[in-house]
Amino acid sequence: MPAEFVMLPPQTERTREWGARLAAALPELKVVVAENHTHAAQVIGHADAAFGVIPPDLLRQAQRLRWLQAPQAAPPAGYYYPELIAHPVAITNFREIYNDHIGAHVMAFVLAFARGLHRYIPQQLKREWKKLPADTGVVHLPEATALVVGVGGIGSEVARLAAAFGMRVIGVDERRRDAPPGVAELHRGDELDALLPQADFVILTVPHTPETEGFMNRARFQEMKKTAFFINIGRGMTTRLDDLVEALRAGEIAGAGLDVFEQEPLPADHPLWTIPGVLLTPHTAGYGPYLDERRYEIILDNCRRFLAGQPLRNLVDKARWF
Predict the structure, then answer these.
(1) What is the pLDDT of residues 261-281, one digit of tens each?
(2) Are residues 305 and 163 in the same domain?
(3) In angstroms, what is the C-alpha Rg of the chain?
(4) Which of 251, 277, 319, 250 is nearest to 79 (CA)?
(5) DSSP code string of 119-148
(6) Are residues 80 and 27 part of one domain?
(7) Looking at residue 170, what is its pLDDT?
(8) Handedness of CA 102, 166, 186, 224 (dihedral sign)
């Protein structure tokens, strides 16, 4: 009997195409595209592997399920519920597909702050020609330190790009044991408070997990330099926005570049829209070409590995959500 791979609902034109391509590429794998919950309930009992979101009622019926491919790099809170964490199923995700796009987005924030665009863009909108005093409003990157919190694929690419601009890069990561190219120092998470005062740019790339929820708070902003900039392109729930607003208003940090927020969309009346020194993008740091093909390639690669009994790519620590 061939191994069975179920594409869980809801379906889109893209996921249906992936199912057809997988079936053509791997005739030894039975691919089932479940169009709705009823269909999924009929087939999940004899599925060996699946793609998508599996609710508790389907998980209870999944007697043979050994591998689940998550549909995102970092699924939202609730994806890893207690029953799924306790289940023996291995879970993989789509991490690594955004490295180049998000790395460029981070550097766009860094360069904008380094060259004063957070001041000049508001002036442009008001048609004001106002120069800052000579030799002010510039961060000389070869003399600046970037603290990258989360040195996975995205953080490693940020480090490589920042180092190319001459920056000294310090990394903080709970899993990594080796410093990737561009990282001058690699530290554990419990050293974060001691490292924050050294940084001119604090860059968050970490996912939302039980450990990271709200861990950038007022106390940590107060540990940063008053001239430092905070950048978050990871997940919005890692940063208490009320605390960030108060830190900015109090002049405890110089500015912030944010692509992710505790509440999305960011409410139109939120103070971050108008606080000086803030650059916002609407959760678009990962935008760029080739993403769907990269997703499909991970699914295909993992299907091949699964059939061959080989280690899966992008395995997740379910209890930690990443």
Answers:
(1) 999 999 999 999 999 999 999
(2) no
(3) 22
(4) 319
(5) HHHHHHHTT---PPPTT-S---GGG-EEEE
(6) yes
(7) 98
(8) negative
Contact 102, 74 (CB under 8 A): no
* Cα–Cα distance, 152 to 165 (Å, whole number): 20
Contact in structure between 306 and 3 (CB atoms under 8 Å): yes
Q: Which domain CATH number covers 231?
A: 3.40.50.720
pLDDT at 134 over 90: no
Give CA–CA dist 267/263, Å, rounded: 8
**Among 146, 145, 153, residue whose Cα is nearest residue 100:** 153
Q: What is the DSSP letter of 271?
A: G
Average model confidence (pLDDT) for the chain? 97
136 and 275 within one domain: yes
Which of 1-10, 61-70, 127-136, 212-221 has the lowest average pLDDT? 127-136
Name the domain count of the chain: 2
Strand partners, 315: 92
The verdict on 79 and 221 lying in the same domain is: no
Are 153 and 248 within one domain? yes
Just list the catalytic residues. Answer: 235, 264, 283
- Please name the residues in contact with 281: beta carbons below 8 A apart, sequence gap of 6 or more: 105, 258, 259
Task: Write the single-letter amino acid at 70.
Answer: A
- Tally DSSP H helices, then E strands, for the chain: 11, 12
Same domain as 115, residue 134: yes
Note down the domain range covering 183.
99-280
Q: In terms of domains, do 92 and 214 share one? A: no
CA distance 58 to 63: 10
Provide the pLDDT for residue 136. 86
- Do 189 and 157 touch, CB atoms closer than 8 A? no
Annotate 205-215 with b (16+ C-beta within 10 A) or e (fewer).
bbbbbeebeeb
Q: What is the pLDDT of residue 306?
A: 98
Average pLDDT, stretch 95-99? 96
